[in-house]
């Protein structure tokens, strides 16, 4: 009995410590006290305890966006302070809300930054009333005010949905006490007090941020503040998506999608280095997709799985993990080879969803070009993995098949998605692809997902200044509209007359989140935190900071900066051996001076 009481005291103390830890997305915060305490649980309980890699941090609201009536609120500013978490009897600063008759009192809070998790509400009512509220989470102010879609259509007709996460619900609060609710992505919260002549006394409201407690080992700084902010925003977007698995989005889509993971994985390589969420998610996809089925029921997503295995081994050099993939990898390559015609054309018809990205979903020419290019890359990199795994004959077979497929001449290429993938696979001249298609009209027709590969293709063509301008124009425009994470979909033309997402929409301005979008991006259903949109973070580290991996596990790297119109850039890059530091400064004659520090065990080739 004494041991159990002691254990409970320790756990309570650890919980108290975790409640007082401030949030800081740029540095590591130690908050594993509860994990250590869990080891002291009684043996019969230990067998049923499941631990994860997630931590909780708390965020105080930054501002009150709106209240419905000044006369029905007393001291709402209390909610913007660290007002403590323990209710008690006695004089204290509290926020009091009441309804007048049937009128509903409402408040919208802004936590200042997109986060993943929910909110904690602490009440301090002096009677036995249990107030009822309507609670709405929003990634924009419009979504926090949006009505819930209740029809059968999964796309929601442009309305907000509870499809993947509860974001609109009614809740009964304790009279004296705390309640925590929510497992979604949000920045704004709207609370409506329900009930005729109802009252509510609030001590505090805090966002509960549920994330992995990770240091940002990679970094990027330059003389362009917008590019710096874009790099950091991409890193933070993916950080939020690194939940128990690597999610596509934290509100919607809370799923593990193979193709969508590749840009996220490349950002993780540049910011966090090795993290178990990537192999765990890759294994999940494999284990839930027995061959000859295709991952996520999309053939291209099985191709992306092969490309991710290649890039993960390239950056981290974990041969033991790669060996665990051998049987599935080889059988997948064999399965895919059955969908190549004798002439070398992809034939992935009627075996799953033909998909490259949503903006080109109904463009059959782009879809064919993209699938052909992805098959070339998957067979080529799959052949290299076979060679590492001692499958010499398979390596030759799939190297030859990649070369055969590369010879197909694809005409009438008219989208940036198709041109980019054809360029990266060696099926289209990189300079022609960039000058004739990708660079046309700047960032017009860029895609939040495939934009990463458009930037890679521009680097292949040597157009680094053009790529930097596209990053500023496309991803920078999201920041200009109030984004703190990057969005599932974005259209520059639609956004021309849009108002920021952190306010009500003025007359004559476009409500971008509510009123735009196509396919599965329609209206408020659209995710405003989507890891696949983080591509500039990985690209800036690889092509501007100039750190490229030459041998598995970063045992040999090349430092080849491309500053474009920048005057200087410096940053860090994580490797299995430690963190690399690099600084490049452009002199008056245009020559670049490079300084670098690398950990022992990393060979450097400087260009």
From TrEMBL:
<dbReference type="InterPro" id="IPR012341">
    <property type="entry name" value="6hp_glycosidase-like_sf"/>
</dbReference>
<protein>
    <recommendedName>
        <fullName>Alpha-L-rhamnosidase</fullName>
    </recommendedName>
</protein>
<dbReference type="InterPro" id="IPR035398">
    <property type="entry name" value="Bac_rhamnosid_C"/>
</dbReference>
<dbReference type="InterPro" id="IPR035396">
    <property type="entry name" value="Bac_rhamnosid6H"/>
</dbReference>
<keyword id="KW-0732">Signal</keyword>
<dbReference type="Pfam" id="PF17390">
    <property type="entry name" value="Bac_rhamnosid_C"/>
</dbReference>
<dbReference type="InterPro" id="IPR008928">
    <property type="entry name" value="6-hairpin_glycosidase_sf"/>
</dbReference>
<feature type="domain" description="Alpha-L-rhamnosidase six-hairpin glycosidase">
    <location>
        <begin position="217"/>
        <end position="407"/>
    </location>
</feature>
<dbReference type="Pfam" id="PF17389">
    <property type="entry name" value="Bac_rhamnosid6H"/>
</dbReference>
<feature type="signal peptide">
    <location>
        <begin position="1"/>
        <end position="23"/>
    </location>
</feature>
<feature type="domain" description="Alpha-L-rhamnosidase C-terminal">
    <location>
        <begin position="546"/>
        <end position="606"/>
    </location>
</feature>
<dbReference type="GO" id="GO:0005975">
    <property type="term" value="P:carbohydrate metabolic process"/>
</dbReference>
């Amino acid at each position: 009995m004494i041991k159990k009481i002691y254990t409970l005291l320790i756990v309570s103390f650890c919980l108290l410590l975790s409640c007082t830890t401030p949030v800081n997305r740029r540095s590591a915060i130690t908050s594993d006290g509860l994990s250590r305490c869990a080891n002291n649980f009684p043996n019969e309980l230990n067998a049923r305890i499941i631990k994860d890699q997630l931590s909780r941090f708390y965020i105080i609201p930054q501002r009150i966006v709106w209240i419905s009536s000044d006369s029905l609120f007393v001291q709402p500013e209390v909610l913007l302070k660290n007002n403590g978490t323990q209710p008690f009897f006695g004089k204290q600063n509290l926020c009091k809300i009441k309804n007048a008759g049937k009128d509903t009192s409402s408040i919208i809070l802004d936590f200042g930054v997109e986060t993943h998790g929910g909110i904690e509400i602490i009440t301090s009512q002096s009677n036995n009333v249990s107030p009822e509220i309507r609670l709405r989470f929003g990634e924009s102010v419009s979504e926090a005010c949006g009505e819930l879609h209740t029809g059968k259509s999964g796309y929601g007709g442009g309305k907000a949905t509870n499809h993947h996460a509860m974001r609109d619900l009614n809740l009964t609060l304790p009279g004296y006490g705390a309640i925590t609710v929510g497992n979604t992505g949000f920045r704004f919260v709207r609370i409506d007090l329900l009930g005729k002549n109802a009252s509510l006394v609030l001590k505090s409201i805090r966002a509960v941020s549920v994330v992995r407690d990770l240091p940002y080992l990679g970094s990027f700084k330059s003389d362009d503040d917008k590019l710096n902010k874009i790099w950091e925003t991409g890193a933070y977007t993916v950080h939020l998506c690194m939940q128990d698995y690597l999610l596509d989005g934290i509100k919607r889509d809370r799923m593990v999608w193979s193709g969508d993971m590749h840009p996220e994985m490349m950002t993780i390589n540049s910011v966090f280095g090795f993290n178990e969420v990537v192999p765990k998610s890759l294994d999940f996809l494999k284990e839930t997709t027995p061959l000859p089925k295709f991952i996520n029921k999309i053939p291209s997503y099985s191709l992306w799985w092969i490309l991710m295995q290649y890039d993960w081994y390239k950056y981290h050099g974990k041969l033991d993990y790669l060996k665990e993939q051998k049987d599935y990898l080889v059988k997948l390559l064999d399965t895919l080879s059955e969908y190549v015609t004798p002439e070398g054309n992809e034939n992935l018809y009627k075996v799953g969803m033909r998909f490259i990205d949503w903006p080109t979903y109904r463009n059959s020419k782009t879809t064919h070009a993209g699938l052909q290019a992805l098959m070339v890359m998957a067979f080529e990199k799959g052949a290299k993995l076979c060679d590492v795994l001692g499958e010499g004959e398979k390596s030759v077979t799939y190297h030859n098949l990649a070369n055969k497929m590369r010879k197909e001449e694809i005409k009438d290429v008219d989208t940036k998605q198709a041109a980019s993938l054809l360029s990266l696979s060696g099926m289209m001249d990189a300079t022609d692809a960039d000058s004739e298609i990708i660079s046309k009209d700047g960032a017009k027709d860029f895609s939040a997902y495939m934009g990463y590969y458009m930037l890679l293709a521009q680097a292949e063509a040597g157009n680094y200044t053009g790529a930097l301008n596209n990053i500023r124009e496309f991803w920078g425009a999201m920041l200009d509209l109030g984004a703190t994470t990057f969005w599932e979909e974005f259209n520059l033309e639609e956004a021309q007359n849009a108002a920021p997402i952190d306010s009500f929409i003025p007359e004559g301005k476009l409500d971008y989140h509510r009123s735009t979008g196509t396919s599965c991006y329609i209206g408020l259903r659209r995710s405003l935190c989507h890891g696949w949109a983080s591509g500039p973070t990985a690209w800036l580290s690889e092509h501007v900071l100039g750190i490229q991996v030459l041998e598995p596990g970063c045992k040999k790297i090349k430092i080849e900066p491309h500053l474009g119109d920048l005057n200087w850039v410096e940053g860090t890059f994580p490797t299995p051996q430690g963190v690399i530091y690099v600084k490049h400064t452009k002199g008056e004659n245009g020559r670049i001076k490079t300084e670098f520090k690398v950990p022992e065990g990393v060979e450097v080739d400087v260009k």
